[in-house]
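quick one before i forget lol
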Amino acid sequence: MLEKMIDRSSYIEKIKQDLKNFKVCALLGPRQCGKTTIAMHYANLQRATGEEVHFFDLEDPDHLNALENPKLLFQNLSGLIIIDEIQKIPELFTVIRVMVDHYDKKFLILGSASQELIRQSSETLAGRITYTEAYPFRLNEIHEMNQLWFRGGFPLSYLSESDQSAQEWLKAYVKTFLEKDIPSFGFDINPTIVRRFWTMLCGYHGNIFNASELGQSLDLNHKTTRRYLDILTGTFMMRTLQPWYANIQKRQVKQPKVYFRDSGIFHVLMGIKNQKDLLLNAKLGASWEGFAMEEIISQIKAEPEDCFFWATHGGAEIDLLINTSKGLNAFEFKFSSQPKITKSIQEAISTLGLEKVSIVVPGDIEYPLSEQVWVIGLEKLLTH
């Protein structure tokens, strides 16, 4: 399978290192992003060294039957135990704690719910577990920007024979996610309403999320719309970017911004059928912003709680701020070959005390607009 030809060795090294330091390694990410392929690759490498590896898929009825008495089963297994779709049986976390504390077992667990959702079920594993987010394909793995941008990073979409077949796969993915995956996570919601909500979020992609406005359009209260957004965020479909607050007198935006995490899903819900249509669409700039933002966040391996935007009601704004131990990394995203220093950028530098703002554009270029403002192509940035 072509997916196996994509070099995802960084995940293999991360798993290897994590299992040296922790008894349990959790690899979390959206359904169909390649987690199982990564885990099986790691399993094969371990088997080649002579280690026993046992794999359990919680969507396989035979594996579920084998796990009727998980404690007894795990006690009698040697080597590494891999459990796929762990969120389907949260009761296993208690058994895993007993296994690592009293039987010195090691586990690699895979999940399609976020670290926050998994943590609610895995509090018993505190100090024993480490988390790694697995992303769909990223640009530094496949180096075909336009195809990745349009089709998104899900392997079976990106590797499709054509844009049309990629779109068909994504449509099926959305349908399955809404009708089967979300209910399997324990959420009792109407898939038809959630699809309408998700589709309407296309209009908010890269913009401030207005729960009340969206709720009125769907005849829902603002608490319900926020809950739907939380569900889509917790299952890796949406990114909710919180505002950064500065201690200034100007009125600052306090509502979050929202983004589709996979550009392919955004495009299919927007009805954008090919790359030519994308270039003519009014959402072109917002699409680029979301795509490039995800690439940078994954490259830096920034946690969601360290990612922000900043905006004032007067119009000053920075698209992305990543809070690091060395200070704020600031990014603006422009689908342009000749971006300029705007008053908004100047005000942000002055107000927030930013040392540098990177304006991220397509391509492999890099040059300064001033001492503090640099234009850099996304491909160039990802090789730094």
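fyi The mean pLDDT is 94.
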